[in-house]
């Protein structure tokens, strides 16, 4: 297993996780959207939504998902302000990422400024009902975040 670290650098993350499944996380105050990608980092898809309670229980639930899918790294959506600065919400997600270090996995913080809006627009365009959108938006946003990260990881220059 790779060493636990938190980085915003795709290159640093790729060195820590040379391959294997990744989990993408959309961290909300009430839910944690989870997505998975294939071992070749080609495509991401929604996995599940974890209803948040106490952090220790959230971490246990996330740990079970990680173990079941043999996840090698985490991509956590970072909700930056439009100008790229941190907000109280950003600081909360950074704290969440730090609290995930006991899972022992490398963590990539990924700019997710437009993920939820992009997913909402796509579901509205597909005429998905409001109730179904509400139930799926977090895990779909996690998939959007993860897909953006794996696309960037796939385009890194190869170093021998």
What does this structure look like?
It contains five helices and six strands. The chain is of the alpha/beta class. It has one domain: Nucleotidyltransferase, domain 5, CATH 3.30.420. Strand 3 and strand 4 form a beta hairpin. Helix 4 crosses helix 5. The longest helix has 25 residues. The radius of gyration is 15 Å and the shape is globular.
- Find the CATH superfamily: YqgF/RNase H-like domain
CATH class: Alpha Beta
The separation of the N and C termini measures 21 Å
Q: Supply the number of structural domains.
A: 1
Q: Helical segment tally? A: 5
Largest sheet: 6 strands, mixed
From the helix content, strand content and strand pairing, which structural class follows?
Answer: alpha/beta
What is the name of the CATH topology?
Nucleotidyltransferase, domain 5
| Secondary-structure element series | EHEEEHEHEHH
Shape: globular
CATH architecture: 2-Layer Sandwich
Mean of all residue-level pLDDT scores: 87
Measured on Cα atoms, how large is the radius of gyration?
Answer: 15 Å
> Total number of β-strand segments?
6
Query: How is the largest sheet built, in terms of strand order?
Result: 1-6-5-2-3-4
The portion of residues assigned to helices is 40-55%
In short:
The chain is α/β, with parallel strands linked by helices and 160 residues long. It has one domain (5-154): Nucleotidyltransferase, domain 5. Helix content is 44%, strand content 24%.
């Amino acid at each position: 297993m790779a060493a636990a670290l938190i980085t915003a650098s795709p290159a640093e993350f790729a060195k820590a996780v040379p391959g294997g499944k990744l989990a993408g996380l959309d961290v909300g105050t009430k839910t944690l959207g989870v997505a998975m990608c294939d071992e070749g980092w080609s495509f991401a898809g929604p996995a599940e939504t974890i209803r948040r309670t106490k952090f220790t229980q959230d971490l246990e639930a996330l740990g079970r998902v990680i173990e079941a899918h043999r996840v090698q790294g985490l991509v956590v959506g970072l909700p930056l302000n439009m100008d790229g600065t941190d907000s109280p919400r950003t600081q909360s997600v950074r704290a969440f990422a730090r609290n995930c270090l006991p899972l022992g996995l490398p963590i990539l913080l990924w700019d997710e400024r437009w993920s939820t809006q992009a997913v909402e627009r796509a579901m509205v365009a597909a005429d998905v009902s409001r109730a179904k959108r509400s139930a799926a938006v977090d895990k779909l946003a996690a998939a959007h975040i993860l897909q953006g990260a794996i696309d960037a990881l796939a385009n890194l220059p190869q170093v021998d």
